[in-house]
Amino acid sequence: MKVLVTGVAGQLGRELMLKLQSANVAVIGIGRGELDFANPEQVAAGIAEQQADWVVNCGAYTRVDRAEEEPELAFQVNRDSAKAVAEGVKRYGGRLLQVSTDFIFDGNQSHPYQEGDGANPLGVYGQSKWEGEQGVREVLPEAIILRTAWVYGEHGNNFVKTMLRLAAERDELTVVDDQVGTPAWTADIADAILVLIKGDHPGTWHFTNEGVASWYDFAQEIVIMARRLGYPIRVKRVRPIPSADFPTPAARPAYSVLSKQKIRAILGYDIPHWRQSLTAMLKASSR
Ligand SMILES: NC(=O)c1ccc[n+]([C@@H]2O[C@H](COP(=O)([O-])OP(=O)(O)OC[C@H]3O[C@@H](n4cnc5c(N)ncnc54)[C@H](OP(=O)(O)O)[C@@H]3O)[C@@H](O)[C@H]2O)c1
Questions:
Q1: What is the value of pTM for the model shown?
Q2: Catalytic residue numbers?
Q3: Which terminus of the chain has a smaller tally of CB atoms within 10 A, N or C?
Q4: Cα of 8 to ligand 1 centre, how many Å?
């Protein structure tokens, strides 16, 4: 099996590449330098050229707030190029796993979102990813769409790394406590991707770690665990604030817990709780 991973310089792409390599799977990683998703008309040919058995599309425009200012680019990358990746895969009869997001939901629900629940994105990023999903399904109905959320890992930029940096610099951190979801460690997402592609499970799937947290809960746990593990932590207090006190250009879902009910049945192992995976990530990063 040969796997092509796009977005290889990103958080998930990098982790997946390393995971596949250590599982002795033949893998090619490509990033913006090799194939620029801002030029969707070149993408199908670039993907087809590689003739990979599986393409895992981790490449995406992920700047949620910036997307409000440059919607054209966000749609080129997340909608048009996602569809073009599917078109490229279809040309030679390959298989595709497209990564998507909890931000396709509006967050008005108060119980975990299932795969079939209605989408209603609040911002440009979510809308572009939702239309990307639809384009992929249209071209390749048998594609795998994997939605995840609150992604963090050792590679790239994320909330955990930002909190570690700020906690080393400041006495107090303020973090919103009225947005609720579940963090997902890239290493765990990569494991789930391996199961999905090895078993070839078409359709839409949700995956994050287990449990529920607000960003405040997540930040507090990062500080507690990091201190315990010997990270340089100066912060004395993490204070919860409402989102209204931290306005951002893009609205975010207040509740975006994804149901793992469907994927649990095929994984064959227990999904780790987010606290457990956060600890594992912090331990790995401190080495
Ligand atoms: N981050 C989250 O919290 C989150 C939550 C839910 C779902 N997701 C989804 O998970 C997937 C992986 O996200 P991630 O966290 O790994 O994101 P990431 O770290 O931002 O990585 C995205 C990758 O896409 C590449 N990319 C951006 N614009 C491109 C372009 N014009 N042409 C080619 N490549 C381009 C980036 O390249 P450069 O390195 O050159 O910029 C980067 O390597 C995405 O589908 C994302 O929508 C993420």
A1: 0.97
A2: 125
A3: C
A4: 9
